[in-house]
## 1
Amino acid sequence: MDTAPLPPACSYLETIGNTPMVKLDRCVPAASKQATILCKLEMQNPGGSLKDRIALNMIEEAEARGDITPGKTTIIDFTSGNTGIGYAMVAAAKGYKCIVIMPKVRPMLERYLICRQFGAEVHLFNPSLGAPGALKYVKDQLAANPHYWWPNQLGNPDNPAVHERTTGPEIWKQAGGAVDYFIHGIGTGGCVAGVGKYLKSVNPKCRVIALEPTEARVHTGASPKPHGVVGWAPGVHSQFLDGFGKAPEELSDAPRGVVDEWGHVATSEAVATCLQVTSAEGMMVGPSSGAAIKYAFDVAARPEAKGSTIVVVLPSHGIRYVAHPLWAAVNAEANEALPPGEAPCSDKEQPILLWASEEYKKA
């Protein structure tokens, strides 16, 4: 492996962005190999996800406006976790206090741990109340604490702006100036809106495909329902995508704004694709990445996609989802191999080998 010259030393936060792009190979179904599928590895941001970009940009733009001051301002927002980690990391690096609000559900475990390790406080809200409940809690906190500042990732224009300014141009350059399809899931909708706008400015024929869980197709008029694609579908329509504020019956699958196609992937499909990609490519991805790759496979197999270039953003690493059902099988195995509370073996008369995972699989 050749080693490129290292760039000059920089600050930690300056390592956000300029993530690599890779081509999928061994995991791609035969029918989908007629197209090229490229993946933007946003898990290689320093905080581990795509959301590092928006956390840094929203905070630095607020600083430039004079809205917030290190040592005086407390940053507060609700999140499914990755944006919260971005806030906590940037706040630690810049000297802000930070409160991250997340739903009280087991898949938030790693996010809770990471935010606390950065020094942020974590408030867990009642998940049955959804985004409206979390929003009310935030507004109550803001009213009671004048020094609190709410970035509002779901409505702050500095969210899509950073993707139009950085993520989009990076993708275009890394793809060699040829992107026919851009596929990404809807969390806040900022990445779809920002990257989509940029790519259409350089290639008006680029098709932008926005994805939701099959169980919660809010942007085409369905009601939000529980799903396991963490990071997607917070239960409200994105303010950055056309259709915000419309009644459900006014929405449809028809193209709107920057989005040409409103796709969907079931949680079970997302999990299955994660495992497939991890074992075939050695690339460990999370549920939203697996869902986007699954849809990319489907698009790549379409007759009209022959010879095209398809770009998918992979928002975060699979290691961040150990408490998710994605890891259920290996979690069960690990708890058998290393039971909680078990003391290390101190009997030297016992055999050298105490456990072999292949034997567990046979059982």
Note: The two ends are 41 Å apart (CA to CA).
## 2
Amino acid sequence: MSSATPRAIAPSRRRHTTRLLAASAVLPLLIGSLGACGYGSKKTDDKPKVAAKGKKLDGLDDVKVGYFANVTHATPMVDRQEGLIQKELGGTKVKPFIFNAGPSEIEALNAKSIDIGWIGPSPAINGYTKSGGQNLKIISGSTSGGVSLVVNPDKIKSVDDLKGKTIATPQKGNTQDVALLNYLAEKGYKVDPQTGKGDVNVLRQDNKEIPTTLKTGGIDGAWVPEPTASKIVSQGGKELLDEKKLWKDGKFVITNMIVSKQFLKEHPKVVEAVLRGSVKTNAWIKSHPDKAAQDINASLKQITGSDLPPNVLDPAFKNIDVTNDPLASTLHDEAQHAVKAGLLEKPVLKDIYDLTLLNKVLKAQGEPTVDSAGLGSK
């Protein structure tokens, strides 16, 4: 996939966009002017591996998709190289936008700067709740696992050593932030969810900056996704906890696929094609794990300008599981964790899922269908 620039923004919309960005806590990946990239998305100029070819679905020129340059977003990162989604879309071009945090991706979805996105559960829950269920639907799972609490082993040897220490997360209210705050509360530590101050200090910092901050002593540990966790370990850090150990059967959703509710209603054929390509990509990843890891590294190189050494890439990739199943029951639990952490008051989860098209695709490909755990259409 190649990244693209959103369509020109009208003056009135540009003013509204500026207000949204001013309210956002996430700006690190904003590159150039608002009209050039928007909402913290990152523009890259590499050419697509598979070109749009053939009939346009629903008459659309393109479909705008968002995701992160993370190993936990393996499906779109691999597809960036293999182009299975583009093949399903025919002449409708995939236009990717890269984000570094979920809230900015939700803003882009709300502003119609993207149509479909891969995103963590907490931003999806927050976005759905704040809109009263009007802005998005979760339409598929993508990955499970791939999150760890990694620490400076000279300062932290056990959970009992966390008091008085500073632990980083990628962003206030993001999936890892919620997980850390919930974990600390369960261990009896008190932390103000808004300021991050308390028995354990929580510092919200961009993923790409966290390894350096830990190495220079600015923080004592971090609750982070891959490949950041494995990078920290490669620099002498220690994994204190793999989040899988906190979940039944070691499975919990870390990345979902979401779609604008309006886009789903108006362009179901396009959404179905993207889902079909996603399911095929996940199957390809499972049957070609070594090449899939190489594809992720190639995408990281294109997006960030650097790839990962084997001692980071290999453990990071092995720590995630691609899945079409959204693991809906774990999303419910993560919403309750956000409430417990003090970051969400009354989560709206009713009808957050619409798995109708996914199950249609799975059935057609002879795969088992998945369930919404009572939180939407099966």
Note: The chain is about 40% helix and 15% strand.
## 3
Amino acid sequence: MAYGIRRRRWAAVLALAAGAVAGGGALACPAGATPQEVAFATHCIPPAIAGIPPIDGTTTAKITVDDASPKVGDTVTVTYTVVTPAASNPTDLALPADIMTPTGKVALGGAQTGDVTVTGPKKNDPVPGKGAFPSFSMTGTFTVTSPGAITLSPGDYNIHTSYILELDTPCTVTDPPAPVSETVTAADTTPVNNRAITLSSASGKPGDSVTVTGSNFTPGATVTLAGRSGTAQTADTATVTADAQGAFSGALTVSDRTTTGVVAYEGGAWSEDEGAGPATYIVVDDTPVPADSQKLTTTVKAGTLSMSQAADTVQLSAVDFGTGGASQGALQTVTVKDFRGGPAGWSLTGKVTDFAGPGATIDAGRLSWTPACATEAGSPSTCLAGSAGTVGTSGATLASAPDGTLTGGEFTVDAGLSLDVPAFTPPGSYSGVLTLTLT
């Protein structure tokens, strides 16, 4: 579940007073794992107008995924981040913000081979003349077709600039494949649909043709190639016939400027059971501005997935020595903000340590919760509360939001807490740490 995954963890102290009232604790935010950053030789060709020779340099990049343990048939979202491009602004002209549109490919290896087409938003900081291009990220998806370890390596990328002129700076991996940056391990299961497509390009001008290559379709089937604008099909379509091995290669002319992807399917209409894609594709609108006119453009910037909590300490109610029973309280309210604007949902889980006290402990498995989750009005996603039950050291889901065409929003998460204290637990204060993880 992630569109550029970000992981946050909060630790809250749950204090139990047995025969006395006591508490305390501190907020903690352990650091998440860092994706492996790799470096590789790159050959970049500046626009001809720049009048400079090709650039041979080094690109540093990293790849992340929203699911490192998928099953065959699952769709994995891939984020390719170019940390340091090999190329720079080839002209003396300073480039303003938000005029760069990156596209690229991620190379799959190991149990599954092929390329994943990735694209990035038209978003960048200003670039001075002859200055270095800033870091940028691109996302795309692929369907898992084989079990086992699948490696992901950075591939070729292109930097398109739209300022005065439409210019491209393509950069290719000098000695492919580049080093492996990420690995996913797919579980063996019978795929419901292992049809797949790749595109010859991730972008083009209105009216340009893109070659769609497909595999694992029904041999001899008529396959429709179509553009997509979000979840709707555009008027850009073409048909091809799959060969005896279920493969095909055909051209699709894409004219609709709202296109976000390309699909291929068997039958009279799109179906996830008999189709493949969408493969990411964007139309670069290079329509000239009429005389005495001004082209107005705005950008909606993607944010992050984050959470905060009202406080970091919960005081559970006291119980009596010799009687024990339910020591109750309420989780400090957690606010989740998903401002990424992509297709990935999120999951908020928790796990608790044993409750340590004066010469004794209360087992973590005795803590249970009853989750509740509310969605702010206008949020594209709907928050789902986790199931009531034991938290324990292995953990449980507190709340979640599913994947969708467009996800996001603001959510408030609460839970009633109950610790089952044994009857003759020695008097004193007992504390455990409940750690919440947002992915």
Note: The radius of gyration is 26 Å.
## 4
Amino acid sequence: MRDVMRWKNAAVLALAVLAVGCSSNSKKELPPAELPDIQEEVQLEKQWSRSIGDGQGELYNQLAPAVDGERLYAASADGEVVAMDRLTGDKTWEVDLELPVSGGVGAGYGLVLVGTLKGEVIALDATSGEERWRARVTSEVLSAPATNGDVVVVQTQDDRLIALDASTGSQRWIFENSPAVLTLRGTSSPVLTNRLAIAGLSSGKVIALDTQRGIPVWEQRVAVPKGRSELERVVDIDGNLLLSGGTLYVVTYQGQVAALDVDSGRPQWTRDASSYVGLAQGFGNVYVTQAGGSVESIDERSNSSLWNNEALARRQLSAPEVFSSYVAVGDFEGYLHLLSQVDGHFVGREKIDGDGVRVRPLVVGDWIYAYGNSGKLVALTIR
């Protein structure tokens, strides 16, 4: 119990780094940038909206919705899990787990997966919402569990990776890891293939494990902790890992963005960056939401910066997502911004939720789904 409390306290302390806009040298915190006036080139049309429980809740949760086929799944911090038709928003089923959900949603292979603050992973039937199984893990789950149909892999706040049988929830293996002294509140979600379970760690490393036995296949350090204080040495990988073909893209807090060969972990290129929410890829570019609030486009072949939009500084941006010819990000006031993939200028803006939009927008074809902090889930298309 002492270890669990130590890591919870560490997470709370480290979150203070984000609150000051990552400016440890500044004596006075700068306010969020005012929204710039833009000339709308693209208009978003709301197709439907629905309220999902209390949304992200009181804590810094990152409960992103997920799509499997034509169904959209979303969860709230107070335990509400909802399945909807993604085109109409009509509810297929709804379950109240009556538990504090903090990791989710994972969906695929007939399962809907969430994790809780109480250290449980719960698998629901994707068709009916009935509980298939639940399993106890070592500590709170702050990211979506992932499955390849054979195993469910979850990363816990204490940096352990645990594989559960996808049919029964019984433990297959556990990978023990020593987390950093001080960490941000959160973890990235594992990326699963048939052969590998890949995860980013609080130490700034990426590790790939054999899905059957949990044995390391490769390990690669992406960021080296620097600085005299533990706050300065935080290099968590909390943003999503992105697998595209044979390349794995990853970004750390106070470290680097890197492209790694997925089979060997060998770096193809690296570039200085700092992000706690993640990145996106499209049109031959990698898009990173930097911790200070800028959005940067990086050429995925040469790792050179193509553009950097700094107009949303300190607005607590979500991870980016590629939507049509644009890059979409949410902010703390609840706006969804569209930026041109070509040069990063603003092309559109839509207000989603007055309490903010923290989680990455979800894009499926020509539809984009934005999930606000208060629980407002909105489906939009380009008019």
Note: The mean pLDDT is 92.
